[in-house]
Amino acid sequence: MTDHFPDGFLWGAATAAYQIEGAHDEDGRGESIWDRFSHTPGKVFGNHTGDRACDHYHRWREDIQLMQQLGLQAYRFSIAWSRILPQGYGKVNQKGLDFYSCLVDGLLDAGIVPYATLYHWDLPQALQDRGGWPARSTAEAFVEYAEIASQHLGDRVASWATLNEPQVSAQAGYLQGRHAPGHTSLDEMMAASHHLLLAHGWAVPVLRRNAPRAQVGVVLNLQPHTAASSNEADQLAARLGDGMQNRWYLDPLAGRNYPADVVAHYDRSMAYVLSGDLEAIAAPLDYLGVNHYFRTVHRSESTADAEVTVQVSSDKTEMGWEVYPPGIQEILLRLHREYPFPAYYITENGAAFADEVSEDGAVHDAQRVNYLREYLHNAHQAIAAGVPLKGYFAWSLLDNFEWAWGYSRRFGIVYVDYETQTRIIKDSGRLYTKIVKENRLK
Ligand code: FCB
To answer: Which candidate in 31, 165, 188, 330 is catalytic?
Structure first.
């Protein structure tokens, strides 16, 4: 069976600044919350830091060559806020702007379409010191940053995303404490989520003014939340899980306010939601970016005895995430059915496995090869069912700093030897090249 993708379907790969750039204290870059967090003993696996990472800040030219070798049509990267505004606002660091300007020109010269994300979790530490995302002033600073970045890179960047996964920024950073800045407060988490969405909404008109020909969107982590059984408690748990992760972000973006069931569940003051905020958050978008990795199956404690009807696969990635390829199709179909976004991109999808360099010098990542095939087949099914899915970005171009997991989890379609900084295209990367070239799966 052959899955042909539509003409013009865009194939790319994604990365994020803190995960690959390194050069944490070079050319005037300011400290970010991930520098502070990773330098705090015990926060990251093996006390790894992004100080050097993939050294992309110095090796970006050869990394663009690698993208060419892979045949990529687009590259999704993020901009480090604290390279451009070391304090988060105020004084601009020209060298930071120059870096991204050269990167964008290098991509364009190589025939690769630049997709930029403004915020992939690396808040300037100076802004965290003034309250971080729970403070409204951080959303104001973000608008200043969006203004400067888009004034300089504007239409050379074909597509802008304001935020990457605000749910993870808020939840992992301010409630669970497993990401920077490592706080554990429900009120902070809720206020952070609102100010992230507000920052997004306020930045949209700025991006449109400075980059009138570019696409503007936002990237969410979205996944199906399934009940383990038909039991009512399980169904409710799944509905709430979906509400907290998906609808809390989708609904306000779609102009529907925060979901009432989740507001009732949290049962906290939301006095920080001011008049006009929800209108700003609902600014029309050109596309929604979907990061998808796994689904969550909910089993309420109160139904411990009920029969489980949904079987979770024992096939898991190194992250412990279930390999469930239909999930990507389910989430896309649901989005298209329930929300009004005009277009979708899979802005991240991929898997961590324990890759090794074989004696032949190659990396035979058979599990990732399968993962890619299966998830792409399901994405194709969604297109066949009418979902306006316009492109796919593999996570990730390179093995990199996987946040709290440090360098212990490898997601790349390209292997990185961190000692020597050698890059080796994995079997999954070779397969991807073939898929991109033929625009189909066989
Ligand atoms: C996503 C992040 C990305 C990467 C993948 C594995 O949640 O956006 O940076 O860590 O997970």
So the answer is: 165
The tokens for 252 are 């306000």
99/223 Cα distance (integer angstroms): 34
Are residues 311 and 257 in contact, defined by beta-carbon separation less than 8 angstroms? no
- Picking from 247, 332, 256, 241, the residue whose alpha carbon sits closest to that of residue 287 is 332
Task: Decide: helix, strand or coil at residue 141.
Answer: helix
Sorted by where each begins, the domain ranges of the chain are 3-441
DSSP state at residue 26: S
Q: Is the CB of 411 under 6 A from ligand 1?
A: yes
Dump pLDDT digits (tens) for 308-337.
889 899 999 999 999 999 999 999 999 999
Q: What angle do CA 171, 177, 183 make, to 5 degrees?
A: 90
Q: How far apart are CA 174 and CA 141, in angstroms?
A: 19
CATH no., domain 3-441:
3.20.20.80
* Angle between helix 56-70 and 427-438 (nearest 10): 50
Q: Is 121 in the pocket of ligand 1 (CB under 6 A)?
A: no
User: How far apart (Å, rounded) are the C-alpha atoms in residues 350 and 372?
Assistant: 7
3 state SS of 82: helix
Q: pLDDT per residue over 392-440, tens digit each?
A: 999 999 999 999 999 999 999 999 999 999 999 999 999 999 999 999 9
Distance CA 309, CA 307 (A): 6
Residue 348 in contact with ligand 1 by CB distance below 6 A: yes
Does the active-site annotation cover 348? yes
359 is catalytic: no
